[in-house]
Write a structure and sequence with these properties.
Strand content: 15-25%
Bound molecules: 2-phosphoglycolic acid
Order of helices and strands: EHEHEHEHHEHHEHEHEH
Distance between the termini: 15 Å
Number of strands: 8
Strand order of the largest sheet: 1-2-3-4-5-6-7-8
Structural class: alpha/beta
Radius of gyration: 17 Å
Mean pLDDT: 96
Shape: globular
Helix content: 25-40%
Low-confidence stretches: none
Length: 249
């Protein structure tokens, strides 16, 4: 195992309610604590409205991190409906997914992604920066080209201050994943541009059936999990799989 940490990040998107957020945070933190010290780390990204509820459901010495699904690139100001990275940090949020394809589809540009990542780092929030190609680009074998366009502006960011997530758009919520060698190749490519020390997670239809194979790839430093993270038991199983792969259970 070349990477120091295996990250499992639950992206709830626009799902859940206050009660389920609290229950998930509490239960998953306990699971992580029980599995203990294995190099597997968990992060829970509920809708922003519930971030403070997730934090409040955790004990002081919690091992589960809480994250947001977005943040704004400015520190403060006239940005109706937006939330700054400093505000996230203020309520105990330590991570933020940035540049998810569902946000890029709303018009978020590569430049805005860097701006947001910088704002997050400045506020002490670790950005989890998402990149990935569309089905058309995948079929036309333009994956590396798309990835390069998305990650080139990131080379100015301090290494080690952020996580990357490779998420082919066509694999998200589709029950389809690339071949294992394609995942490995995309991860190697990202590392070849940004540096071998950058942790790259895989995202897109990760579930209990394919996690073993995906997380066993030496290039893969964890997973960004959408649909399969919504149930406590499924997330617990995924954490157990990750822990077993690291050879500590
Ligand atoms: P999925 O979503 O696991 O439901 O495919 C992953 C993501 O969009 O982060």
């Amino acid at each position: 195992m070349t990477h120091p940490t295996t990250w499992l990040i639950a992206n709830w998107k626009m799902n859940g309610d206050r009660e389920r957020v609290r229950a998930f945070a509490f239960a998953i933190n306990r699971t992580l604590a029980t599995l203990g010290g294995s190099g597997v780390r968990g992060v829970f990204c509920p809708p922003s409205l519930y971030i403070a509820d997730a934090v409040a459901a955790l004990p002081q010495n919690a091992v589960l991190g809480v994250g947001a699904q977005n943040c704004h690139g400015a520190e403060k100001g006239a940005h109706t409906g937006e939330i700054s990275a400093a505000m996230l940090a203020d309520v105990g949020c330590r991570f933020a997914i940035i540049g998810h394809s569902e946000r890029r589809a709303l018009g978020e540009s590569d430049a805005q992604v860097v701006e947001k990542a910088n704002a997050a780092i400045k506020a002490g929030v670790t950005p989890v920066i998402c990149v990935g190609e569309s089905l058309e680009d995948y079929e036309k074998k333009r994956t590396n080209e798309v990835i390069l366009r998305q990650i080139k502006p990131l080379s100015a960011l301090p290494q080690g201050a952020y996580l990357m997530a490779y998420e082919p758009i066509w694999a998200i919520g589709s029950n389809r994943t690339p071949q294992m060698q394609e995942i490995a190749a995309a991860h190697r490519y990202i590392k070849s541009v940004l540096g071998s020390g950058v942790s790259v997670l895989y995202g897109g239809s990760v579930n209990v059936g394919n996690a073993q194979e995906i997380l066993s790839l030496p290039e893969v430093s964890g997973a960004l999990i959408g649909g399969a993270s919504l149930e406590i038991e499924t997330m617990q199983t995924l954490l157990e799989i990750a822990t077993r792969i690291r050879g500590t259970v």
